[in-house]
Design goal:
This protein starts with 9 loop residues before the first strand and ends in a 7-residue tail after the last helix. It is an alpha/beta fold and about 475 residues long. β10 and β11 form a beta hairpin. The mean pLDDT is about 95. Helix content is about 40%, strand content about 15%. Bound molecules: 6-O-phosphono-beta-D-glucopyranose (BG6). 6-O-phosphono-beta-D-glucopyranose binds next to loops.
């Protein structure tokens, strides 16, 4: 049995514009929802952008992308996943014509990737709906969002399809159920949002995603369009059949999103759920036809698994947006995200069995507090905990490949420290590259290679053969 990963396996890292670019009003950009979320999903948005929001400056990637990409190239990245900030290209979101300066930035970024041998993987919408669309339309609750998104996606395909083959329509599209502002640009506070409006927004996003897939394939049938979902396997807390069923139900809430993307129609269990909630969706005649445009691959983030219990007295713990009942057998990160490398093998196998579509692990990583120390005369972070996490999860990818699963690539979340999506902190660091910036906004923005930088470089250099 060979240890190496398949030839051409894509190795790299993933980021999102709002978490690292900064320059939030530069070259015609207007605010996105992120610019009024200084506490992430932990607190309601502010009226206007406030200086305590670390995302306004990010890690200044907008001005430093060349040297940051040099660091990624040094690690041997063959792929780089980033998002386009919608509000750079369509600053309000509902304009007729795009902002040329915004497109020009991504022209430069794409060319900079290609000249360093990195395949760009673009997320069209990563938690950064233009603020105007959230405020004036209540985000995806409004059907007109489909047309705005179609225009935006078409603009990107027409401009970049000659250089960009891999596209993801929405980051973690299933997160809208848990974080409606973040993932759906929905201004109504979650506690006041009716199931009808929430699921109507889900429907609009799914139609928009399928429509973008259609548009992309019309422009160039060779383009590879993927959906992107949070993968979070749910294990029954006990062997009681009722817990097994609870776990299945929890997983299905998420799986439904990729089911629609892969099969082109709503699954029966999802329709039942709507009936039980008393939700009657407003579905236009052409919507069901549009949904039939299925994706070429399924991409996902994987950070943790959860447990499920039929007992309503069992409380959920903290975790990646979705949350769930803590697993008593697993360790947790400082932020309460449970560490479960085997879960990645389970997800890869389950997804492959369910949809038979190629898979792409586009996010996986460990958020931790790092300490900058001097070793052999240079500043670094001795992050053995991150190397351990990386290695264990890559071994699971290797096992899944041996199980016969078709996996196209692996992009680590936040190869350079970025602002956290859930908490808006910089101290929750994922990077192989340390960025000198603190939660209070101080710091030089200097970059330093961590110990994990060399570890990932060695793994990529060996095409995964030396994982142990
Ligand atoms: C995913 C998001 O949910 O997890 C990223 O797609 C996010 O945007 C990542 O940064 C890690 O989460 P957090 O909250 O630790 O930044």
């Amino acid at each position: 049995m060979t240890n190496a990963f398949p030839e051409g396996f894509l190795w790299g890292g993933a980021v999102a514009a709002n978490q690292l670019e900064g320059a939030y009003l530069e070259d015609g950009k207007l605010p996105s929802i992120q610019d009024v979320m200084p506490k992430g999903i932990a607190a309601p948005p502010t009226e206007e952008p406030t200086p305590d929001n670390l995302k306004l400056e990010g890690i200044d990637f907008y001005h430093r992308y060349e040297s940051d990409l040099d660091l990624f190239a040094e690690m041997g990245f063959t792929a780089f996943r980033f998002s386009v900030a919608w509000s750079r290209v369509f600053p309000r979101g509902d304009e007729e014509a795009p902002n040329e300066a915004g497109l020009a930035f991504y022209d430069r970024l794409i060319d900079a990737c290609l000249s360093r041998g990195m395949t760009p993987v673009i997320t069209i919408s990563h938690y950064e709906t233009p603020l105007h669309l959230a405020r004036a339309y209540n985000g995806w609750v409004d059907r007109r969002m489909i047309a705005f998104y179609e225009r935006y996606a078409r603009t990107l395909f027409e401009r970049f399809a000659d250089r960009v083959e891999y596209w993801l329509t929405f980051n973690e599209i299933n997160a809208v159920l848990h974080a409606p502002l973040l993932a759906g640009g929905i201004w109504t506070p979650k506690e006041e949002l009716s199931p009808r409006d929430l699921y109507q927004a889900v429907h609009h996003e799914l139609v928009a995603s399928a429509s973008a897939t259609r548009i992309a394939h019309e422009i160039d049938p060779e383009l590879k369009i993927g959906c992107m979902v949070i993968a979070s396997p749910a294990y029954p807390l006990t062997p009681a059949p009722s817990d097994v069923w609870a776990a299945k139900q929890l997983e299905r809430d998420s799986l439904a999103f990729a089911d629609v993307h892969c099969r082109g129609a709503y699954p029966g269990f999802f329709l039942r759920k709507l009936r039980e909630l008393g939700v009657e969706l407003d579905v236009a005649d052409e919507d069901l036809e549009t949904l039939r445009h299925t994706v070429d691959f399924v991409s996902f983030s994987y950070y943790m698994s959860v447990c499920a219990s039929a007992d309503p007295g069992v409380r959920a713990g903290r975790g990646n947006i979705m949350g769930g009942v803590p697993n008593p057998t697993l360790p947790s990160s400082e932020w309460g995200w449970q560490i479960d490398p085997v879960g990645l093998r389970i997800v890869l196998n389950d997804f492959w069995d369910r949809w038979g579509k190629p898979l792409f692990v586009v996010e996986n990583g460990l958020g931790a507090r790092d300490e900058l120390v001097e070793v052999d005369g240079r500043l670094t972070v001795v992050d053995d905990y991150r190397i351990e996490y990386l290695t264990a999860h890559l071994k699971s990818v290797r096992e899944a490949l041996r199980d016969g699963v078709d996996v196209w690539g692996y992009t680590w979340w936040g190869p350079i420290d970025v602002v956290s999506a859930s908490t808006a902190q910089l101290s929750k660091r994922y990077g192989f590259v340390y960025v000198d910036r603190n939660d209070d906004g101080t710091g030089t923005l200097e970059r330093y290679r961590k110990k994990s930088f060399d570890a990932y470089r060695a793994i990529i250099a060996g095409n995964g053969a030396d994982l142990g």
